[in-house]
Amino acid sequence: MSFESMRVQAGYAKRKDLSERCGVSVQRLHDWETGFRDPRGISLRTAHEISSALGITLDDFWNGLNE
Predict the structure, then answer these.
(1) Overall pTM surpassing 0.90 (yes/no)
(2) How many structural domains is the chain composed of?
(3) Domain range holding 42?
């Protein structure tokens, strides 16, 4: 599952909404979603913030990135 798919499935239609919820810039979210940057290189703290905002476990978040 792509990063964008996880965001949309969690109910965040816009990157800005997730950005405000987890404290990651809209540009960084864009970079991860478009493949400009690999989201698997993010810090554990950031991954925890994002997975919490998405309403999924950290394991599900990491596994989703690897699909």
Answers:
(1) no
(2) 1
(3) 3-65
